[in-house]
Write a structure and sequence with these properties.
about 350 residues, Nucleotidyltransferase, domain 5, six-stranded mixed β-sheet, five-stranded mixed β-sheet, 10 helices
Length: about 350
Amino acid sequence: MKPARVLAIETSCDETACAVIENGRALLASTVASQMDIHARYGGVFPEVASRQHVLSIIPVVEQALAGSNVTFREIDAIAVTRGPGLAGSLVVGMNMAKGLALGTGLPIVGVNHLEGHIYSSWIHNAGESVPPEPEFPLMALLVSGGHTELNLMTDHLTYKRLGSTLDDAAGEAFDKVARLLGLSYPGGPSVQKAAENGDPTRFKFPRAKLDNPYDFSFSGLKTAVLYEVNDLKKKSKTLPVEDIAASFQATVVETLFEKTMQAARDYKAKEILVAGGVSANRPLRNIFQSQTEFKVNIPAFTLCTDNAAMIAAAGYYRYALGHVSGLEMDALPTWPLS
């Protein structure tokens, strides 16, 4: 593929981010302005507040990423931007910034699906460090985040087949809701993981959904089972065993994600497994995948698990290099998975 430097912008939710990547893998700079502390007071992302904060942060973030990469726009070959899915108001800020930069510089603009970006986070390494081998196709990709939980078979660059997805709550969404039930802080993933560290994961036997499609997921019933357990314990005036509930809930989610992914990888004769998305930062999930020896597993660095622009730049590079470039009048977001 042709060499190229791509600058990318990501504003799909509550992170304002910009990054520069060379040849789809070497990360020259990545800047993320987090709004986590702002939204923690609401117990979740407040869309209007998020979009306003993006407006304040977008220009400084882009300037910082350019300065950190030691390149100018004359040395950039394309601009990538997240065009969805995400919060409409947040996406507009990033899209308009990218369009303005493209108009001002004459550079082509590449629209990237946020989920595709998460997948390509496993291709990234820091510039100047040893280059790890690329993930090898066919890949079984587990996308697991606050809004999405799904299994996709990836047979080549930009080529996907969705095998299954969540029928209700995504794994990250379930973590947030259970954290709220247990009185833990937002975001739920890190707070449940921390509480679970001193808990007994075998104390509570929470259910797993039995589904017609073995590659689909469902966490709504699990969340409801936790709710019933919490209410029952409160009625009995017992001290709520937060750590044990958190550990038992987390173990159920992790084992479900692991077992379904492993089965899909076997069934479709995948060479490797890829785990991406915000929940891929969960340590027990990383440990269970990395401890098995049947498949090589690709999991991005912790800094690349949550929303960032480096992953958008990586995916944008492959779309640019393979000729999948949208114009300024970008069409509606295609149905995921893209192909």
